[in-house]
Design goal:
The structure is a homodimer.
Chain A: H1 5-11, H2 18-29, E1 33-34, H3 35-46, H4 51-63, E2 68-70, E3 78-80, E4 87-92, E5 98-102, E6 120-131, H5 133-143
Parallel strand pairs in A: 4-6
Antiparallel strand pairs in A: 1-3, 2-3, 4-5
Helix pairs in contact in A: 2-3, 2-4, 3-4
Chain A binds a DNA duplex (30 and 30 nucleotides) through helix 4.
DNA sequence: ATACAGATCTTGACAGAGTCAAAACTTCTT
DNA sequence: AAGAAGTTTTGACTCTGTCAAGATCTGTAT
């Protein structure tokens, strides 16, 4: 014992609630899920959950480092449980699918920009944009018509 | 001749309109301007412009590569004319300010993730999150109270 | 067990940024 | 000058997310 989701919450000084457990499970079960998706999954699981509770739970879990928030530009934020390692994301511009990509250069490559100018940097977020194999294939097929 | 804004538009097969010229000038004159800011500047210049026209113009200019869109999460998108070079952005979590940072590793460092898996990648987006010198100073002062 | 304080959730209004659709108006070409 | 296609206006609307206040639940100390 000690690694159950409930213990994980307690360990961080958080109250254990049905909502938080459901949110945690939703994110674990479906990497790269959106807040909206979490609400849906959690709803199915515990019958009902308010939007606010979802956002609150996600925020506190991110703060405690139990989950990670990725914020692709122009798209809703997504959440995942894979934390602690330094990996990036590849997003298909067509279908929106997100996949993990290990960092190309090592452990923390881009964390130090050339000139920090007294900025205090705590995170470097890297997102690769492109098209996934499926969408490339589909584009090819479509243009053949 | 040939490098006037108007010619620039024609060169790309776009109709030359007062709205587009105003938008182009707004972005040139004020790096990292938001869509809202563009609307304001353009309004002052040509008397009136609809929000939709601003968004349309910005979108088409981005598409043609005449300007570049940066979309920090949680903050409105920004536009700049500095295109063609590879640089990233440093965003202050507190005040939202955006500054350019030249790429740490060279010309196009992160454009090739370790494993492309047949993805067709067209852009690597790097965002450094942190706190700017001013906000750091303010935080220090505030806690002294 | 019981009660309490504080943490958490619900509800419902609200905000910012951007999109959609249809009609009116321009620009470019002939 | 005239027409077709490209642009702009207008106004409603969506999508993410936030705020605030009161109701409810959790953990802890009786």
């Amino acid at each position: 014992m000690g690694d159950e989701p409930a213990d994980l919450l307690r360990k961080h000084g958080l109250h254990v609630t049905a909502q938080r457990l459901a949110v945690l499970r939703a994110v674990s079960g479906k990497p790269h899920i959106t807040a909206d998706g979490v609400a849906e999954v959690a709803n199915a699981e515990i019958g009902a959950i308010s939007r606010q509770a979802v956002y609150d739970a996600l925020a506190v879990l991110v703060e405690k480092g139990l989950i990670r928030r990725i914020q692709p530009t122009g798209a809703p934020a997504r959440y995942e449980t894979r934390v602690g390692d330094n990996h990036h994301h590849l997003i298909c511009r067509v279908c929106g699918r997100v996949v993990d990509v290990d960092c190309a250069v090592g452990s923390a490559p881009c964390l130090t920009p050339a000139e920090g100018r007294d900025y205090e940097i705590d995170e470097a977020e890297v997102v690769y944009w492109g098209r996934c194999p499926e969408c490339r294939a589909r584009a090819r097929t479509d243009s053949e018509v």
